[in-house]
């Protein structure tokens, strides 16, 4: 019976994804049959099914973004509110490189071996980071639920279309000021440092900037922090010629160090 439900749900969701992917090509998440084989494998399908039966979501629409480590889907809750479903790819090998950022975090002292366990733990880490930031009043998507390799959070956008990132927006002085304020609040209020703070991972909504992709955030009392901050500085330095506001963010990181 479970296998029948799994196949029906898998077929229904995959048909939606195929229809969606024909309209919008994604760079990483849908190459060479990844829809079925890597994103919606049987355990993930059953995880989504449980989220439906637990009324976390009512149904799943198509994808809205894809990367090497995860794919984000547009889901809808029972009350018709939009939900972002971030599904981490269990089959990818990229998470093996993330192990040092888990073993060094005292919130996750016991890391079991195996890619699947790392992926599940990474999902929990991003949920914890989101919760820590949200509780501190930092503009991030509100975390809703996490189980296995699926993270549910508020959808930042309208009708399945995500808000534009800073990368594709007109960057203004107020954006710079908000970005600096977010860095300060991350450090002093949430006691975290965003490991990939860039124009790629910041939404520009009508009201404010919203930071996302928080899996690489680090807490302040782990040994790896300074080295990671220095790597962040190098990344930011590569973008300085393009955006003046990144230079000021660089100086902010230097003051933290």
Architecture blueprint of SSEs:
Layout: H1 2-23, H2 34-39, H3 42-53, E1 59-66, E2 70-76, E3 82-88, H4 99-103, H5 115-135, E4 143-147, E5 150-154, E6 157-158, E7 161-162, H6 173-188, E8 192-193, E9 202-204, E10 209-211, E11 218-219, H7 225-237, H8 244-256
Helix pairs in contact: 1-3, 6-8, 7-8
Structure, briefly:
By secondary structure, the chain is an alpha+beta fold.
Overview of this structure, please?
The longest helix is centred in the first third of the chain and has 22 residues, at 2-23. The chain is of the alpha+beta class and 257 residues long. The N and C termini lie far apart (57 Å). Helix 7 (225-237) packs antiparallel against helix 8. It is globular and about 50 Å long. It has helices at residues 2-23, 34-39, 42-53, 99-103, 115-135, 173-188, 225-237, 244-256, and strands at residues 59-66, 70-76, 82-88, 143-147, 150-154, 157-158, 161-162, 192-193, 202-204, 209-211, 218-219. The strands form four sheets. A five-stranded antiparallel beta sheet has the order 1-2-3-5-4, sandwiched between helices. It has a two-stranded antiparallel ribbon with strand order 6-7. Strands 8-11 form a two-stranded antiparallel sheet. The chain has two domains: 2-160, Phosphorylase Kinase, domain 1 (2-Layer Sandwich); 163-256, Transferase(Phosphotransferase), domain 1.
């Amino acid at each position: 019976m479970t296998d029948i439900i799994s196949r029906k749900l898998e077929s229904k969701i995959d048909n939606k994804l195929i229809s969606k992917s024909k309209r919008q090509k994604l760079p990483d998440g849908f190459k060479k049959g990844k829809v079925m084989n890597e994103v919606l494998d049987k355990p993930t399908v059953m995880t989504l099914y449980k989220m439906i039966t637990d009324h976390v979501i009512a149904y799943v629409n198509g994808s809205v973004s894809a990367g090497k480590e995860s794919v984000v889907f547009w889901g809808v809750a029972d009350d018709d509110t939009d939900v972002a479903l971030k599904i981490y790819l269990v089959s990818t090998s990229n998470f093996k490189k993330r192990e040092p950022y888990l073993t060094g975090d005292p919130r996750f002292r016991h890391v079991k071996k195996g890619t699947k366990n790392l992926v599940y733990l990474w999902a929990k880490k991003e949920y914890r980071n989101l919760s820590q930031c949200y509780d501190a009043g930092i503009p991030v998507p509100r975390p809703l639920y996490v189980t296995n390799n699926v993270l549910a959070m508020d959808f930042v956008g309208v009708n399945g279309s995500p808000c534009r990132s800073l990368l594709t927006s007109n960057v203004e002085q107020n954006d710079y000021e908000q970005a600096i304020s977010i860095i300060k609040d991350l450090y002093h209020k949430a006691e975290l440092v965003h490991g990939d703070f860039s124009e790629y991972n910041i939404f520009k909504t009508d009201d404010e900037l919203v930071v996302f992709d928080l899996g690489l955030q680090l807490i302040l009392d782990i040994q790896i922090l300074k080295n990671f901050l220095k790597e962040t500085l190098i990344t930011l330095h590569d973008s300085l010629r393009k955006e003046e506001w990144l230079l000021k963010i660089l100086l902010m990181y230097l003051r933290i160090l």
